[in-house]
Design goal:
Layout: H1 6-11, H2 28-32, H3 38-49, H4 55-72, H5 76-91, H6 97-101, H7 108-120, H8 125-138, H9 143-153, H10 159-170, H11 183-189, E1 228-232, E2 250-256, H12 263-280, E3 284-287, H13 290-299, E4 304-308, H14 314-322, E5 329-333, H15 336-341, H16 349-353, H17 356-362
Parallel strand pairs: 1-2, 1-4, 2-3, 4-5
Helix pairs in contact: 4-10, 7-8, 8-10, 9-10
């Protein structure tokens, strides 16, 4: 975070290539799983650089919060995307799809970024925008399949940030605003590494996938002081740092293999289990699924299963069954950072951004 001030503001949209990315934090895999929190990062950056010098970094950090809060108020967008992917696969892969995911389209920048993504699990944020734009407007492929491809490959794959960023590029998030990749811009910002030919000159915005109306935020049931089984998921792996939870009567810390979609999830959850078990001085265990979690809770005399708030995504989908487990009260802890910010995320990002200063002040920064 030493470069989160002026250097970040000046250099953040330059892609130096695999293994040479500079002026970016590379914190996104940890932030996605909350091995560290947005609040911790914001506090460290402000202490080092001050609010004004770090304003661009903070603005980008808050995009993650904004996307989550927006999707929390329109959860059907996630369900609709998953359904669309299923329908597209059942209909058969569209022309050009295999070439796109294998990086053999003949568009040097696109193919290079696909190779980097597949080999490293990472892409510079600016490069992600270019890749998505070329996928949608030049290759003419469904945005849903592009979002599915990057979600499967990215180490920091986040349901909200990934899905909604693709919708933003496609022109579906903000009416009249699509993102069209530009060959000269790509050449300049990659230091001449790429000179793509044949890019689309017009953004043909997809039809029929408009956002639904905003709905009320889901209100989780707060944990009580009753004996608890603590369930860790890739949604929040530093619950021991949360003041309201530190004195919980935790009898065991558990995690589900079913919640780990990739090796990075397993490594992150293992780290979270170790820290949580040390904090509450209890044992930790991996279980197969939520049925096993409920069974262990009953066997351990735990009246509640406590976990971090599951935002819209695969973990939340799995929790619908857990909430109905007989004899076990299911509770989620939502961080104050989210509780303050998400109500402001109902419209566009720039409307949300007007609240950043007050949100930082409310967090004591």
């Amino acid at each position: 975070m030493a470069q989160a001030g002026a250097t970040y503001a000046e250099r953040r949209n330059f892609d130096a290539g695999p293994g040479r990315h500079d002026a970016v934090s590379r914190l996104s895999p940890a932030l996605r799983r909350r091995l560290i929190s947005e609040e911790e990062v914001a506090r460290a950056v402000i202490e080092r650089h001050g609010r004004e010098a770090a304003s661009k970094f903070l603005s980008e950090l808050f995009w993650r919060t904004y996307w989550k809060g927006w999707l929390e108020q329109r959860p059907s967008v996630w369900a609709d995307w998953r359904h669309a992917c299923q329908m597209l696969h059942e209909a058969g892969a569209p022309a050009g799809y295999a070439a796109a995911i294998e990086g053999r389209t003949g568009i040097d920048a696109f193919d290079g970024w696909v190779r980097e993504l597949c080999e490293t699990g990472y892409l510079h944020n600016w490069a992600r925008m270019q890749l998505a734009s070329i996928w949608i407007f030049t290759l003419g492929l469904p945005w849903e399949l592009g979002a599915e491809f990057t979600f499967a490959k990215l180490l920091d794959a986040d349901p909200a940030s990934n899905t909604l960023s693709w919708r933003w590029v496609a022109g579906l998030h903000t009416a009249g605003k699509a993102y069209l990749a530009n060959a000269e811009n790509i050449n300049v910002r990659t230091g001449g590494r790429f000179r793509p030919d044949g890019l689309a000159m017009v953004a043909d915005v997809p039809r029929g996938t408009e956002a639904p109306e905003r709905s009320a935020l889901r209100m989780p049931t707060d944990p009580s002081q009753r004996p608890a089984l603590l369930l860790l998921t890739p949604e929040d792996l530093s619950l021991e740092t949360e003041g309201p939870l530190q004195r919980l009567d935790v009898r065991r810390v558990v995690a589900c293999r079913a919640h780990c979609q990739r090796p990075a999830d397993i490594a992150a959850v293992a780290d979270g289990l170790q820290r949580a078990a040390a904090h509450w001085r209890v044992g930790s265990v991996w279980l197969d699924d939520l049925d096993a979690v409920a069974a262990l809770a009953r066997e351990s005399g735990c009246e509640q299963v406590v976990t971090g708030y599951a935002a819209v995504g695969p973990v939340r989908d799995s929790f619908r069954k857990m909430a109905q487990c007989e004899g076990v009260h299911f509770t989620e802890h939502r961080r104050a950072w989210d509780a303050r910010a998400w109500p402001q995320c109902g419209k566009g990002y720039f409307a949300f951004a007007k609240h950043i200063a007050e949100l930082l002040t409310a967090a004591g920064m």
